[in-house]
Amino acid sequence: MKDYRISWDDYFMLFAVIAAQRSTCLRRQVGAVIVKDRMVLATGYNGQPRGVKHAAEVGCIREKLKVPSGERHELCRGLHAEQNAIIQAAYHGVRIVGADIYVTNKPCIICTKMIINAGIKRIIYYRDYAAEDITTKLADEMIEEVGLEVVKYEPSSERVEKIIKFIEETALDHDLIRKLLKETPQ
Q1: CA 167 to chain centre
Q2: Alpha-carbon distance 178 to 38, whole Å?
Q3: DSSP type of residue 26
Q4: Which helix (H) or strand (E) covers residue 58, if one does?
Q5: Which DSSP symbol is given to 46?
Q6: What are phi and psi of 124, to 5 degrees?
Q7: Is there a contact between 126 and 16 (Cβ–Cβ < 8 Å)?
Q8: 125 pLDDT exceeds 90?
Q9: Burial of 181 (0-12, 13-18, 19+ CB in 10 A)
Q10: How would DSSP label each residue in 144-181?
Q11: Which of 100, 160, 167, 177 is 20–30 Å from 127 (CA)?
């Protein structure tokens, strides 16, 4: 009998795509899900620390300063999805050594180092993070050096591709938020 269910990779990547919809970043919505033995251990999306106003409320300092994507991570109110997922696991005392992480975008150099030190053994990502530069090359070198498995996710069917597209197309309109922020006196 044929199994018509989506694959496990599809299942967990869809969790990451949905997590990305909680993002408060005005530039890019990223989601992450940490999984072990087919169980979700933690999720994360790119957004500010608890209690800190986010860019949709106060504006994006990176946009104001015209900081290119992938550079000067310290000039941001938010954390990356992978960082938030790892922190969520630590906050709740969840052991993630040996787990997989599903991410909508390939991790940056900082997240790659955190993933390595957290003991995560496999990264499954959907899209590349940014243009190839020295930091992405360094991240790839470190990944190879420690033997971390990295898999570029491909949806297993047209059906799954349509689900992802639907979720992303019906997401919050960040361009509208930008426009409203410009019109609102600060």
Answers
A1: 15
A2: 38
A3: S
A4: helix 55-58
A5: S
A6: -120, 115
A7: yes
A8: yes
A9: middle
A10: HHHT-EEEE---SSHHHHHHHHHHHHTS--HHHHHHHH
A11: 177
In order of 16, 120, 123, the CA distances from 117 in angstroms are 21, 8, 13
Instruction: Return the active site residues.
Output: 82
For 69, phi then psi, to 5°, come to -60, 140
From residue 169, alpha-carbon distances to 13, 18, 31, 94, 183 in Å are 16, 12, 15, 33, 25
Phi-psi region of 72 (alpha: psi -120 to 50; beta: other; left: phi over 0): left
| Those residues with Cβ within 8 angstroms of residue 177's Cβ, 6 or more apart along the chain or in another chain | 26, 56
Q: pLDDT for 69-97, tens place per residue?
A: 777 878 888 899 999 999 999 999 999 99
Token pair 């297993």: residue: 156
Q: What letter would DSSP give residue 92? A: T
User: Is the four-CA dihedral 104, 44, 63, 140 of positive or negative sign?
Assistant: negative
Residue-level pLDDT at 133: 75
Nearest one of 88, 85, 90, 82 to 113, comparing CA atoms: 82
